[in-house]
Design goal:
heterodimer, A: alpha+beta, Butyryl-Coa Dehydrogenase, subunit A, domain 1, Butyryl-CoA Dehydrogenase, subunit A, domain 3, 4-stranded antiparallel beta sheet, globular, B: alpha+beta, Butyryl-CoA Dehydrogenase, subunit A, domain 2, 12 helices, 10 strands, binds flavin-adenine dinucleotide
Chain lengths: 396, 372
């Protein structure tokens, strides 16, 4: 048996033994296991599952074992993901530190920073927030204005960040701040780590069209940050940020599969709400036809991901290909949400109506929330700009 | 879902060969001369020498073992160069049908087909659109009666593989047989159809054509069992050809946008055009992934690729159609001239759309296979 097949067998056996049955069902929002000092588990099974995965290092499968990671190769990670998907295992940990900061620290952090932060991330002890966007700096992120003034042993941070996901629940935040305003806008930015308990940090939740308040505006008012919390060198934050955006885009793309798992089968829902005729066709030919469009897109996306995996494995990557995934994947989610909503008929129009099922409520809420996918992590238009320039070579 | 080293070599060999020997100008020549058989025999023989007719045969029949991914690479180049050849009809469908029947024809006929000395055309369509289940041509008391239309490669074929009803009172795709009819048999009339894309199709009349049992390929009355999977594979090959055409169009359009200036800048700097190109690129790569998935599924021994074939065809249709419309548009006034090649791709795309089933046909089939 080849080593990778051997690994597959071991992983499969371990997951079968260690993943509780309740953690093998599609995850619902309230039962996600988020990191943090004040971590809470929806059920004892969730806690058990998290602890077993953590102790195995599989909350961060490819990170080096010295920082508590699993030390797996990317091929082994892919196998592990496949095996988890096969058993429907829920993700054992949710955290921006895990998805975004960690990979950037591995590349740009110094040894002390890695020692200090990585194992806490793997162990789910700290919940991280991302402080990039500002009221006047969205797509044009480099125009950010939050200042950090050099005071010798520390920096003094003043300004505001917006759309900071879960800032009110986060323990730490990684942020982009301006440390030098004299050069071009991409120069003079630094990447800094800030403890949310520091004096002068405050957050205000923002209510969304889905009725949730997932993000905040975050304020920094004369916040003192130790000098050693700068990552990747002073005024070198844009390089670190770019590294991290790569991971964010990957994350947004995999969000698709996360979301896919938690939600509905279009065909089943349509069969229930619209019905089928004697020949087994859905009663609404227009919906039926648009379900075909959606299934064809969603399945094709899986094949695109699979193709990309084979390209990586054989070291023949078409550099344009990874750029397409976020644009296509986020559109596909929304295309599906629109259909789900339509299939519900007028049950898709009410808001927190007692007489409607939680499932109906979820569909409506997700439909509204998922509008964020084509905005967060670089809007669709920005993705198209990048594709046009990098993959197609069109002039700036 | 990526080409291996031999397949990549095959791909670049075919690409270089067609670039030099048969650029799109070769199709113009066929079209303008109204070439009676619809393809250039010398070119076809040279392609055969490069091995294209043996790519997916079994090894005992002289197959080269490049697999369907390799075949897809060849089809992509055929699509890029708009090459008119009997590849799809005589090899991907014809030779495969003969080989699958695995009877005396495999030894008598197959070697000639692979060598290009005989040429097959699959006679299936009868009405306005592809719909094998509606086959009305019938064999009764040893006589074949019926009319076939838009037969791919019909004018250049030496023999026809005719799908006809042989079981009385049968319906749909049940009760069909595949019948080998030589072009010069008494009662066969072939009329060339000059199609919009400059390729060649035929209207064929079979009037009381005498047929004996030896001419039935495979199991009588049960032809569909063998034909269907072969048409699924052919559909994937056709989709690969279509995406070759779409890819060529994207590259030509990008080159034009990087060259043409208006308002003192390259028109490729306008975001309105950039975004559309980026979307076309995404659409192309998505469709390409389904085609590769289908072709590599065959290579991995998956027997039933019906759903993947329909899936691939639909995405290839949508992609090629959109790409060709946009390519014309982005070439401005030049796009609607016969002088530039873009219009030839536009026309080819519409023909490919209908060959082996249009979008409605395959969407319906996909939905049925998925159980809604
Ligand atoms: C769910 C969600 C979570 C988020 N989480 C975080 C977080 O944790 N931390 C954080 O820092 N930020 C976060 N963000 C912010 C996110 O990164 C920004 O919303 C995003 O970068 C867009 O910025 P903006 O909202 O200011 O829109 P703008 O940049 O003002 O864009 C408005 C519109 O103009 C278009 N546009 C802008 N520039 C161009 C251009 N050059 N060409 C064509 N069109 C253009 C955009 O595509 C968009 O349609 C989150 C956003 C969402 C939706
Ligand atoms: C059937 C026909 C009849 C015609 N009759 C006449 C006539 O009688 N007299 C006459 O003088 N002319 C005539 N024309 C010419 C016609 O006006 C031009 O073809 C037209 O103005 C477009 O110019 P172009 O072909 O040079 O394309 P280009 O300007 O080169 O355009 C190429 C592509 O770039 C796009 N593009 C260009 N600039 C921008 C921009 N700023 N932003 C976004 N996209 C842009 C275009 O929309 C197009 O898709 C005719 C053209 C046709 C097709």
């Amino acid at each position: 048996m080849s080593p990778i097949d051997e690994f597959r067998q071991q992983a499969r056996a371990w997951l079968e033994e260690n993943c509780p049955a309740s953690q093998r069902r599609p995850v619902v929002k309230d039962e996600q296991i988020w990191a943090g000092r004040d971590r809470v588990f929806a059920t004892p099974d969730a806690k058990l599952w998290f602890e077993r995965m953590r102790d195995k290092g599989w909350t961060a499968p490819t990170w080096p074992t010295e920082y508590g990671g699993g030390g797996l190769s990317s091929e082994e990670e892919k196998v592990l993901e496949k095996e988890m998907a096969r058993l429907n295992c829920r993700p054992a940990l949710y955290d921006l530190g895990l998805w975004m900061l960690g990979p950037a620290l591995l590349v740009h952090g110094n040894e002390a920073q890695k020692q200090e932060h990585l194992s806490k991330i793997v162990r789910g002890d700290i919940r991280w927030a991302q402080g990039y966007s500002e009221p006047a700096a969205g797509s044009d992120l480099a125009s950010l204005k939050t200042r950090a003034v050099d005071m010798g042993d520390h920096f003094l941070v003043n300004g505001t960040k917006i759309w900071t996901t879960q800032a009110d629940k986060a323990d730490w935040i990684f942020a982009l701040v301006r440390t030098d305003a004299s050069g071009t806008k991409h120069q003079g930015i630094s990447f800094i780590l800030i403890d949310m308990r520091s004096a002068g940090v405050s957050t205000t939740p923002i209510e969304l069209i889905s009725g949730e308040s997932e993000f905040c505006q975050t304020f920094f008012d004369d916040v003192k940050v130790p000098r050693e919390n700068i990552v990747g060198g002073l005024d070198n934050g844009w390089t670190v940020a770019k590294e991290l955006l790569k991971h964010e885009r990957k994350l947004m793309a995999t969000m698709e599969s996360i979301v896919q798992r938690e939600d509905e089968s279009l065909v089943e829902l349509a069969a229930e709400y619209i019905g089928m005729d004697e020949s087994g066709k859905l009663n609404d030919s227009n919906i039926r036809s648009r379900i075909t469009d959606q299934l064809m897109t969603a399945e094709a996306l899986e094949y695109l991901n699979e193709r990309l995996f084979f390209q990586y494995r054989s070291k023949q990557v078409d550099s344009g290909l990874p750029l397409t995934i976020k644009y296509l994947g986020t559109n596909a989610i929304q295309q599906k949400d629109e259909l789900l909503l339509e299939i519900l008929g007028n049950h898709g129009l009410s808001w927190q109506e007692q007489s409607h099922t939680p499932r109906e409520h979820n569909i409506v809420q997700n439909w509204a929330y998922n509008k964020a996918h084509t905005i967060a992590g670089g809007t669709s238009e920005i993705q198209l700009n990048i594709i046009a320039k990098r993959a197609l070579g069109l002039p700036a | 879902m990526v080409l291996n080293e031999e397949q990549r070599l095959l791909h670049s060999t075919i690409r270089d060969f067609l670039n030099q020997r048969a650029p799109v100008a070769a199709l113009r020549e066929l079209r303008d001369n109204r070439n009676p058989q619809g393809f250039d025999s010398d070119l076809w023989n040279e392609l055969i020498e490069l091995g294209v007719s043996s790519i997916v045969l079994n090894e005992d029949n002289g197959g080269l073992g490049f697999g369907w991914m390799g075949l897809g690479a060849v089809m992509e180049e055929i699509g890029r160069h708009l090459t008119a050849t009997p590849m799809l009809s005589s090899i991907v469908i014809g030779a495969a049908l003969i080989e699958a029947a695995d009877d005396h024809h495999s030894t008598d006929l197959l070697p000639d087909v692979v060598a290009g000395t005989r040429n097959l055309a699959f006679a299936c369509d009868e009405g306005l659109r592809y719909n094998p289940g509606a086959t009305a041509a019938a064999l009764e008391n040893g006589l074949l009666q019926g009319e076939k239309t838009f037969v791919i490669n019909g004018p250049g074929a030496t023999d026809f593989l005719v799908l006809a009803r042989t079981a009385a009172d049968s319906k749909g795709t049940d009760g069909l047989s595949l019948i080998l009819v030589p072009r010069d048999a008494a009662g066969v009339t072939v009329n060339r159809i000059h199609s919009v894309d400059g390729h060649s199709f035929a209207q064929i009349k079979f009037d009381q054509v005498a047929v004996d049992n030896q001419q039935i390929i495979g199991v009588p009355d049960r032809a569909w069992d063998t034909v269907a999977p072969i048409l699924d594979r052919a559909t994937l090959a056709l989709a690969a050809e279509m995406l070759g055409g779409a890819r060529e169009l994207l590259e030509r359009t990008l080159a034009y946008l990087n060259d043409r200036e208006q308002f003192d800048v390259k028109i490729g700097s306008f975001q309105a055009l950039q975004h559309r190109c980026a979307q076309l690129f995404c659409q192309l790569e998505l469709a390409q992934s389904v085609v590769y998935k289908g072709l590599s599924a065959i290579d991995q021994g998956q027997q039933d690729v019906a759903k993947l074939a329909s899936h691939a065809k639909v995405l290839a249709i949508d992609c090629y159609q959109k790409m060709s419309n946009e390519a014309v548009q982005m070439h401005g006034g030049m796009g609607i001239t016969d002088e530039v090649d873009i219009g030839l791709f536009l026309k080819r795309s519409r023909v490919c759309n209908q060959m082996l089933g249009d979008s409605s046909f395959h969407r319906e089939r996909f939905a049925k296979l998925c159980g809604y």
